[in-house]
Amino acid sequence: MPAFTAFVRTARALKPRTAVVLGSGLAGAASAFTEHASVGFGDIPGLALPTVAGHGSRLAVGEWSGVPALLFLGRLHFYEGHARAIVTGTVRTAAELGITRIVLTNAAGGIHPALQPGGLMAIRGHLKLLGHSAWRLLANDNAVSQPYSQHLLEVLRAHEDAAGRELLAGVYAALTGPSYETPAEIRALAACGADAVGMSTALEAEEAARLGLEVAAISCITNKAAGLGDAALDHAEVLVNAKLAVARLGELLGRLIGIE
Ligand code: HPA
Predict the structure, then answer these.
(1) Which residues make Cβ contacts (< 8 Å) with residue 236, sequence separation at least 6?
(2) Of 24, 128, 212, 242, which is most buried with the most CB atoms under 10 A?
(3) How far is the C-alpha of 175 from the C-alpha of 117, rounded, in Å?
(4) What's the 3-state SS for 171-210?
(5) Do residues 81 and 105 lie in contact, with contact meaning Cβ atoms separated by under 8 Å?
(6) Where are the domains of the chain?
(7) Which ligand 1 atom is nearest residue 181's CA?
(8) Is there an atom of ligand 1 within 6 Å of 180 CB?
(9) Does the CB atom of residue 238 touch ligand 1 within 6 A?
(10) 31 noted as active-site residue
């Protein structure tokens, strides 16, 4: 695995403390990042190649506004057919490289009426409804009960307050996918307390918390969830609206990476 060995050497020299995972169409949030080295997912032990449009598939190490950082450009999804252990391989790779904090990002559909396309939601909790036992997990979930760091949420809130913006913090429902939800499913999710819906993040957040990492997660609202907007959902709309949110997302990522 020579490509990975060379990458690890660069990463160990740079000593990043924070890793960022950029989800669907969100690579534009990394304009403050200067890359020193990168490696394809296919060259990282324990990972696999992603198959979805809009996802790069590299792990990069470099500096974010001068601060060392690890950056996953793309992630692996359960709906691609990857096992849970592969989906969370990114998190274990980051932990093995010595990081202590991880920031997970994703594209999500807005359920809460205040969440408009192009907006952001900090994740304060999740409903993990993915996997073969999906909804059964609601009644029977023995994972880490609160993976998301209250401290990081407060740092984000304070940053947005200072910028004169409000940051909504809400509950993310992670579903298996790959198809979008039905309007009836969205009504059910709303009744269960979900504010946004997507197909990632929950497994990674729990694995990161289990490994003792500080975890933050931010959803970019790319569309109103099924039945709540005017138009039918499609992946192209998700990618277009993701671009609207990336400048503000990039600022928030820089703030978290810059924490002493
Ligand atoms: N549902 C599920 N996943 C998503 C959505 C959605 O509406 N938008 C972006 N990812």
Answers:
(1) none
(2) 242
(3) 19
(4) EEEEECCCCCCCHHHHHHHHHCCCCEEECCCHHHHHHHHH
(5) no
(6) 2-257
(7) 1
(8) yes
(9) yes
(10) no
Ligand 1 contacts CB of residue 233 (under 6 A)? yes
> Is residue 57 within 8 Å of residue 73, measured between CB atoms?
yes
Distance 191 CA to ligand 1 centre (A): 18
**Domain 2-257: top CATH class:** alpha beta
Task: Give yes or no for residue 106 CB within 6 A of ligand 1.
Answer: no
Taking Cα atoms as reference points, which of 223, 218, 172 lies closest to residue 198?
Answer: 172
Q: What is the pLDDT of residue 142?
A: 55
Among 11, 27, 107, 108, which one carries the catalytic annotation? 107
Q: Which of 80, 186, 222, 224 to mutate to test the pocket of ligand 1 (most atoms within 8 A of CB)?
A: 222
Q: Is 235 a catalytic residue?
A: yes
CA pair distance 196, 220, nearest whole angstrom: 10
**Ligand 1 and 198: CB distance under 6 A:** yes
Distance CA 181, CA 192 (A): 15
Which candidate, 116, 149, 143, places its Cα nearest to that of 127? Answer: 143
- Chain centre distance of CA 157: 18
Of 53-57, 165-169, 218-222, the range with the lowest mean pLDDT is: 53-57
pLDDT band at 54 (very low <50, low <70, confident <90, very high): very low
Burial category of 152 from C-beta neighbours within 10 Å (exposed 0-12, middle 13-18, buried 19 and up): buried
Quote the pTM value: 0.93
- Ligand 1 centre to CA of 78 (Å) is 14
